[in-house]
Write a structure and sequence with these properties.
This protein has 13 helices and seven strands. By secondary structure, the chain is of the alpha/beta class. Strand 3 (127-131), helix 6 and strand 4 form a beta-alpha-beta unit. Helix 1 runs antiparallel to helix 3 (74-87), helix 9 (200-213) packs across helix 10 (220-233) and helix 9 crosses helix 11 (241-262). The longest helix has 22 residues, at 31-52.
């Protein structure tokens, strides 16, 4: 890899800066996560410049752990990380392969190794994202084959670390327990990144962003109704941050469509674009039920 030193007046790597700016645009909040990703990108840029100057530079270990509740942006950040690695020449393809336990662990003797190796073959040259990684390890089941998958992954993470980045993701407490039970895995993870839950204000901003992409907007009354909806929904089990907001928006659009079609008249452009309070207040959550 060769790279001429960039003039002081030019950005070190404009392509990477573009990806980081998109990360800022796509994700509300998550400042600690964005800061850590920027730090990693800076390390890779400097490492690349050192190589261009024939200075000692060894590819840093880039395997990561993303810990946080559902809907906190882990997959989106993994996608952007894969793109950064490609743009800086640390991965050949820059693609993201997302898997769970079922993709790696077989149901009988001799089934796990070929499954896991096939996934690794697909992921080489890019990033392997293992969601709910702690389910790989089930010590309570003596006939479970997850440990075999873990051993194969450990070998690949060490021997192919210049051509494969593995990101393990899941709930924070379960990830910590997984690493305590698998110290060999923890020792290969260089970056442990925590993804915090969103505040109610951030979730409203996320809703605005999602609606804007779809060319919708809240009416003033609908915005107040959605804030009330969020306050109730966040107290319920299985709340999944931005994922729950996206599901709520899908339900709002469904109710809006039913409301507009029920009039029998052609709606105006403004009506097509506006979510009204009633599109939210008809949610079961206002009757004390769970769901959207």
């Amino acid at each position: 890899m060769s790279l001429s030193p960039a003039p002081a007046s030019e950005p070190v790597d404009a392509g990477v800066q573009e990806v980081l700016e998109r990360l800022d645009t796509e994700l509300i909040g998550l400042e600690p996560v964005k800061t850590r990703i920027r730090d990693i990108a800076s390390l890779l840029i400097i490492d690349k410049l050192r190589k261009a100057e024939d200075l000692t530079a060894e590819n840093p270990t880039l395997h990561m752990s993303f810990a946080g509740n559902p809907g906190t942006g882990k997959t989106t950040v993994a996608l952007r990380m894969a793109e950064i690695l490609r743009r800086l020449g640390y991965s050949r393809k820059g693609h993201l392969v997302t898997v769970t336990r079922d993709d790696l662990v077989g149901q009988y003797i001799g089934h796990t190794a070929p499954k896991t190796k096939e996934i690794l073959k697909r992921a080489v040259g890019g990033v392997l994202f293992i969601d709910e990684a702690y389910y790989l390890y089930r010590p309570e089941n003596e006939r479970d084959y997850g440990q075999e998958a873990i051993e194969i992954l450990l070998q690949a993470m060490e021997n192919q670390r210049d051509d494969l980045v593995v990101i393990l993701a899941g709930y924070k407490d379960k990830m910590e327990q997984f690493f305590r039970s698998n110290p060999g895995m923890k020792s290969r993870i260089a970056h442990h990144i925590d993804f915090p839950d969103y505040s109610a204000e951030q979730l409203i901003a996320i809703a605005d962003l999602m609606l804007g992409r779809l060319m919708y907007d809240f009416s003033p009354a609908a915005r107040l109704a959605f804030a009330d909806y969020l306050e109730r929904r966040m107290r319920q089990p299985q709340f999944a941050n931005a994922r729950s907001v996206r599901n709520a928006i899908d339900r709002m659009r469904l109710r809006q469509a039913s409301r507009l079609c029920a009039t029998g008249e052609r709606p105006s452009r403004a009506q097509l674009m506006t979510i009204e309070a009633e599109d939210i207040l008809k949610s079961r959550i206002f009757n004390g039920q769970s769901g959207s």
